[in-house]
Amino acid sequence: MADIKQSIIASVFSRRNATGNFEETYVSHIKIWEDAGPEGRKARYILLSQASNGNGFLHKSKHNNNGSFSVGKTWRLAELRGLQALGPLAFNITLSRTYKWQTESAIDQNNFLSALIRLFRQFSGTSASLRLEGIADPDAETLDRLIAGGSDVVNVNGHLDGETGDEVESAQDTLASVEEMIEGYEWASDDVIGRKIARGAADLIEARLLDELMALEKANIHSFLESDDRVGLVMKFMDDALAELDNLDGLISSYKIHLNAVNDDISHIQSQNRGLQVQTQNQRALMNEIRNLLQTVQVDSDALVTLAQESLEQSQSISKLELAASELYKALQAGRDTDIAATMERLQEYRTHNAQFCRRIHDFLTIMFTAQAKLLLGETNGLTKQKRGSRQTIIQHQDIEEYLGRYCGLMLYVKEMDEAIYGRLCAAYFSASSELHGTQIKALLGAYLGLVKKASEEDGEYSNSTGSSGKAQSGMRRAGTLIRSPMESRNKDKDKSSSSTRMTSDGDLRVSEVFLLVLEQINPLSHQENAFMGDFLQINSLNHDTALTFADYMALDHYFRRQAARSNSLSSATVKLVRGAMDLIFGFLPLEIKGWLEKALEKDPIEIVGVLAILEKFIADADEKGNLFLFNFLGKQYTRLKGVFDRHINDQVKSIEQTKLTFKKRKGVAPFIKQFPNYIQRVESQLIATGADESGLGVRENVDAAYNKIANKIFETLKVIANMGGDEEDKGQLTYHVVIIENMHYFISDTAKMNIGSVGSFANKAKSLYDENLEAYIKILFRRSFGKIIDYFEGMERLLRTLASPSDITTNSTYNKHAFRKIVKEYTIKDLRKHVDAMNKLVQKHFIDASVVNQGNASQDVADEGVGRTVLLGVWRTCEEELVKLTEGWTEKVSQCYGEGVGLEFNAADVEQAFKRYKTEP
């Protein structure tokens, strides 16, 4: 409790006033609980205090987490109206309204309420109304002491009043009276008045004595006034003086009103004077502006003569024209917002001079556009002269750009001052520039078409020459060809001039390489033209916020720059014209490039892959440089050629599928199997040359998808062809496996050398087909010669799975020793050699003899025989390995089941010896 009290005093009652005393003094406190609604109850502290002036206060405070107290609400004790004790731990208190508080201790509640009533009675007196219920007043002793203290004061006052009539007391009696009086004042000041300030008894006595002295002086003055008759006269004079003062006050008020009225008149006059001064200054400034305007609107006659007669050819003359045009420009800009009659006639004259000057510029530049273009084209159509060991290139336009660049300032002037002339100038430039570029690029394409290398007969027309007649051979060539131009059917009916064009001399460069050279010429030409045209025709300044004006170009005053910025806008038709400038200038390019590519790809259709890669690179470059025309143009070409490539792949798939209807040969390598690796190599060489893989171009994905599509069709068609051979079931199966083995061997041997990710997937598929069919072929081959013994040991194997011991097999009549000896007699060493010899003849028939017999082309015979021998060696080696493995397995089973004394007539070494004489010369 003591700690709480000290914390309350330190937190709330520690402030001092100017005299150094505490502003409030702690009296008592109590901890209460009040209702907080849904949150339950909350604890608070009610603090009772007395101020330095004697007033009492009630504070409601909260106990903070750091141990301090903070006051939330305060009531003056004078507001207290009633107290009601609801119980030992609850009471109601009525201030401005009634509060119900619960306490924790009955003793604390009783002490707090007693102190509260005591303090209230102390400064309010006993007559103050305070309603108490269930609470007793404080003890009467305190009130008696308060009354006694008041009697002492009265006695002291009476003693002072009767001081003149009494005899002087003795010194000892006087001292006793003073001490008694001091005690009374000490008690009264502390308990009755309740002011806890450091005032001693001497101060109270002094104050009382001063009050008595003042009362005596008042009484003496009153008695003096009553005894003197002149007082009435003095009072009359004073009344008269006051009346005169009232009259003077009225006069002064009247004068003040008049002065205020005069002051208003003076202020009005002053304001009128200031207005006249401002008006005079404005009139002077207006006159100066009018003079300046007239001077600005006026153009020197020499400048007008310069605009009409000065040459447009020389650079020095162009500078003079720009200066003269700036004078006319300023006059016309200044006159845009004025309708002064004095300037209207002059402005109309200047507008006429402006129109004449703009037409003069138009006529001159229109001629110069054509003249400069013809000068650049010369006798070589704008290409460099042909030299030995070098190729022709497009002559760049630096000379034209330098010549026309001198007129940029005048073009700005025309753009702002005569939009119609500006539009016609732009159209004239577009026409001349388009003709110039068209002549150069057409000449370049014609010259570079001769650089394209025509594909050889082997590369351009891969055929299946399997038929005996020429007609059948031709049909097979069409059906088996893997590389075919997707535009061949489109160009079959072209006239003789087209045919003669295709028969022109060929170069030594691939289509993609020549196309790269073409785009390397066109690409910078397009970028350069786009940049120059933007500067010369001020197309880059079409944005109103960043537009360059003639005032900016000539560094005129800010006034003219603002005027120019306000009026610097073109109509939608003119804006549309200049924004489509590149399309107008290079409008011929899409058809020219399309025609050139068709002619170039006629010479080597497969080069379309390299062309796609080149296009994709230049599309990315155009996008990076922001050349929208080139980006769209190349993008359309890429989309078109991508469709051509897709049709090309579909044609290859159809050609492969058609082979199964026209290809009569059931053995040997199919033509599409032979040509597919070459096809891949040619395509990959283009991708490597163009850097498609390093650049991450999308054409790589298209090519991989094409590979997979063709490879899947190859496998599908090959299986169909293989199934078409043989009348008997066993012969048909052998033929099927022979076709698959030979074709897959050829396919694997060529594709295995390619380090291409997409090729690996179908190369693995081919290897799987090869292994699967080779295993099946060997099984059929072995079953023809060793069928009985294979069936015997396979049955033995199945029986062994059901027996507890291998030796138990002798109890079976089918697999006892007698049955085994009977089988062994049929497979002696001599029989082994005979069977191996028969297998060798059959394998040779499958992989060599039939190829030689069925081919009509001598060179093809040699090639196919070489392929057959290579395949035969692999097949024969696998046959030996499989038969050795079978023999070792049979020998092991015989030893397990029959023990010693029984065995095969031959062993693994005999098998190897039988195969050995056919290894080098099958």
UniProtKB/TrEMBL annotation:
<dbReference type="Pfam" id="PF20654">
    <property type="entry name" value="Sec3_C-term"/>
</dbReference>
<dbReference type="GO" id="GO:0005546">
    <property type="term" value="F:phosphatidylinositol-4,5-bisphosphate binding"/>
</dbReference>
<feature type="compositionally biased region" description="Basic and acidic residues">
    <location>
        <begin position="487"/>
        <end position="497"/>
    </location>
</feature>
<keyword id="KW-0175">Coiled coil</keyword>
<dbReference type="InterPro" id="IPR048628">
    <property type="entry name" value="Sec3_C"/>
</dbReference>
<dbReference type="Pfam" id="PF15277">
    <property type="entry name" value="Sec3-PIP2_bind"/>
</dbReference>
<feature type="compositionally biased region" description="Polar residues">
    <location>
        <begin position="462"/>
        <end position="472"/>
    </location>
</feature>
<keyword id="KW-0268">Exocytosis</keyword>
<dbReference type="GO" id="GO:0006893">
    <property type="term" value="P:Golgi to plasma membrane transport"/>
</dbReference>
<keyword id="KW-0813">Transport</keyword>
<feature type="domain" description="Exocyst complex component Sec3 PIP2-binding N-terminal">
    <location>
        <begin position="39"/>
        <end position="123"/>
    </location>
</feature>
<dbReference type="Pfam" id="PF09763">
    <property type="entry name" value="Sec3_CC"/>
</dbReference>
<feature type="region of interest" description="Disordered">
    <location>
        <begin position="459"/>
        <end position="505"/>
    </location>
</feature>
<dbReference type="GO" id="GO:0000145">
    <property type="term" value="C:exocyst"/>
</dbReference>
<comment type="similarity">
    <text>Belongs to the SEC3 family.</text>
</comment>
<protein>
    <recommendedName>
        <fullName>Exocyst complex component Sec3 PIP2-binding N-terminal domain-containing protein</fullName>
    </recommendedName>
</protein>
<dbReference type="GO" id="GO:0006887">
    <property type="term" value="P:exocytosis"/>
</dbReference>
<dbReference type="GO" id="GO:0005886">
    <property type="term" value="C:plasma membrane"/>
</dbReference>
<dbReference type="InterPro" id="IPR028258">
    <property type="entry name" value="Sec3-PIP2_bind"/>
</dbReference>
<dbReference type="InterPro" id="IPR019160">
    <property type="entry name" value="Sec3_CC"/>
</dbReference>
